[in-house]
C-alpha cells in the first residue's frame, strides 16, 4: 500500500473516529475490550479502504464496516478481561443539561441497551445516529418493513425495562 | 418523550472520552487482525493440508501400503483413475475455498457477510465429509481384502465360532462409531466455538424475516 493512501486513510479515520468509538461503546463493556474492538475495526477499515469509492460518504461506509466487524468478524481477544466497568468509558452529558432523575434514567437506559442482543444494538445504533429505515435495512440486509417492526419492538422492550 | 429520543439527545451531545491519535492509528494498521474470517482461512488451509497428507503420505513412505494397493488394484488403470479423481477433487475444493474466501467482503450488508462466511464453512464441511466417506470406504475395502487375502486372518475366521465372529464385527463397529464420534465432537467444538456468535446473530436476522 502506498504512503499517500495510508496518509489519507489515517487522516479520514482520525476525523471520523467518533463513529468507531460509538460502535465500540455499544458492543463492549470495558476499556480494554473497547480498544481491542477499535483496533479490529481500524484494521478491517484499512483493508477495505483500497476498494472504497469516493461516491459513498466515508462515514456511511464506516458504519457498515464498523457494525459488520462488531457483529460478525470480531472475536473477543483473550486479553480482554472484565475489570473495568463500562461507566469508565461512558460519555456524559454536561451537568447543567440534566436533572437527577434524567441522569438516573439515562444510566438505566444505557444499561438496558447493553442488555439487547447484537442485532438489536445495531438497530439502536443506527437509529441513534439518525439513519433512516432505508439505510438501516440496507446495512443489515433486512427489509425496511422488518427494520421498522423490530425497532418498535425494541422501543417497547426498553420501555418495559425502564418501567417494570 | 420517547426513551430512545432521550438517549439520542445524550448520544449526539456526547463527546469522546478517549481520542486516538493519528500516530496510534498508523500503528494499528500494521497490527494483526483477529477476525473469525482469518481464523477460518487458517483452518481451511490446515484441513486441506491435513487431508492431502493423509491421502498422499502413505503412498510415498509406506512400502507395505503400496504392496497392499497392488494387491487390491491388480488393474493399474483403475488405480491411476482413482488417483486422478482424488487430485481433481482436491483441486476443486482448493478452487471453491479460494472463491468463497474471496467473496467474503466486510462492505457487504450484515446478512450477506454472514452468509458468505457460512458458505465458506459449508465448503470445508463438505470437504471433510468427502474425506471421511473416502476413509470409511477405504477401511471397509482394506478390511475386506485383509480378511480375504491374509491366510492368518482367514484361517482364524474360518475356525472361529459364530459368537467370536460376532465379537470381531462388534469391535469393528464400535471402533468406527468411536472414531466418527471423535471427529464429530472435534469439528463441533472447533466450528461451534468459532462461529457461535455469528450463528446466533444470523438466526436473529433470519427471525426478522419470518
Automatic annotation (TrEMBL), chain A:
Q: Where is the signal peptide?
A: none
Q: Which domain of life is it from?
A: Bacteria
KW GTP-binding (keyword) present = no
Q: Name one GO molecular function term.
A: DNA binding
Keywords for this protein: Sigma factor, Transcription, Transcription regulation
Record carries keyword Ribonucleoprotein: no
Mind telling me which InterPro entries this protein's record contains?
RNA_pol_sigma-70-like (IPR039425), RNA_pol_sigma-70_dom (IPR014284), RNA_pol_sigma70_r2 (IPR007627), RNA_pol_sigma70_r4_t2 (IPR013249), RNA_pol_sigma_r2 (IPR013325), RNA_pol_sigma_r3/r4-like (IPR013324), WH-like_DNA-bd_sf (IPR036388)
Q: Which residue numbers delimit the RNA polymerase sigma-70 region domain?
A: 12-80
Listed GO biological process terms: DNA-templated transcription initiation
Where is the RNA polymerase sigma factor 70 region 4 type domain positioned along the sequence?
Answer: 108-158
Family, according to the entry, reads as follows: Belongs to the sigma-70 factor family. ECF subfamily.
Against NCBIfam families, the record matches this protein to: sigma70-ECF (TIGR02937)
Q: What's this protein's name?
A: Sigma-70 family RNA polymerase sigma factor
TrEMBL record, chain B:
Q: Which domain of life is it from?
A: Bacteria
The UniProt transmembrane annotation reads: 39-58, 78-98, 127-147, 167-187
What keyword terms does UniProt attach to this protein? Membrane, Transmembrane, Transmembrane helix
Q: What is this protein called?
A: Beta-carotene 15,15'-monooxygenase
Organism, scientific name: Pseudotamlana haliotis
Amino acid at each position: 500500500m502506498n504512503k499517500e493512501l495510508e496518509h489519507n486513510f489515517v487522516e479520514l479515520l482520525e476525523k471520523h473516529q467518533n463513529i468507531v468509538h460509538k460502535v465500540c461503546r455499544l458492543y463492549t463493556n470495558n476499556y480494554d475490550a473497547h480498544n481491542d474492538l477499535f483496533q479490529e475495526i481500524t484494521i478491517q477499515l484499512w483493508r477495505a479502504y483500497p476498494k472504497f469509492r469516493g461516491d459513498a460518504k466515508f462515514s456511511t461506509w464506516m458504519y457498515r464496516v464498523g457494525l459488520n466487524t462488531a457483529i460478525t468478524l470480531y472475536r473477543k481477544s483473550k486479553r480482554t478481561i472484565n475489570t473495568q466497568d463500562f461507566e469508565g468509558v461512558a460519555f456524559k452529558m454536561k451537568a447543567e443539561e440534566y436533572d437527577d432523575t434524567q441522569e438516573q434514567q439515562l444510566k438505566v437506559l444505557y444499561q438496558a441497551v447493553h442488555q439487547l442482543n447484537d442485532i438489536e444494538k445495531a438497530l439502536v445504533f443506527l437509529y441513534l445516529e439518525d439513519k433512516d429505515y432505508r439505510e438501516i435495512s440496507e446495512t443489515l440486509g433486512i427489509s425496511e418493513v422488518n427494520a421498522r417492526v423490530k425497532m418498535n419492538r425494541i422501543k417497547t422492550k426498553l420501555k418495559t425495562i425502564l418501567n417494570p | 418523550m420517547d426513551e430512545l429520543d432521550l438517549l439520542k439527545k445524550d448520544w449526539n451531545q456526547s463527546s469522546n472520552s478517549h481520542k486516538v491519535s493519528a500516530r496510534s492509528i498508523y500503528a494499528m494498521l500494521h497490527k494483526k487482525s483477529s477476525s473469525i474470517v482469518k481464523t477460518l482461512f487458517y483452518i481451511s488451509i490446515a484441513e486441506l493440508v491435513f487431508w492431502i497428507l493423509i491421502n498422499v503420505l502413505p503412498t510415498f513412505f509406506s512400502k507395505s501400503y503400496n504392496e497392499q494397493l497392488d494387491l487390491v488394484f491388480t488393474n493399474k488403470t483403475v488405480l491411476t483413475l482413482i488417483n486422478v479423481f482424488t487430485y481433481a477433487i482436491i483441486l476443486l475444493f482448493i478452487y471453491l475455498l479460494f472463491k468463497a474466501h474471496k467473496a467474503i467482503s466486510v462492505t457487504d450488508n450484515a446478512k450477506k457477510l454472514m452468509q458468505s462466511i457460512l458458505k465458506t464453512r459449508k465448503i470445508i464441511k463438505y470437504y471433510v465429509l468427502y474425506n471421511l466417506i473416502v476413509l470409511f470406504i477405504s477401511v471397509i475395502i482394506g478390511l475386506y481384502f485383509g480378511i480375504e487375502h491374509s491366510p492368518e486372518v482367514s484361517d482364524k475366521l474360518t475356525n472361529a465360532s459364530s459368537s467370536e465372529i460376532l465379537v470381531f464385527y462388534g469391535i469393528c463397529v464400535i471402533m468406527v462409531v468411536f472414531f466418527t464420534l471423535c471427529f464429530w465432537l472435534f469439528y463441533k467444538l472447533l466450528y461451534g466455538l468459532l462461529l457461535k456468535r455469528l450463528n446466533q446473530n444470523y438466526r436473529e436476522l433470519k427471525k426478522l424475516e419470518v
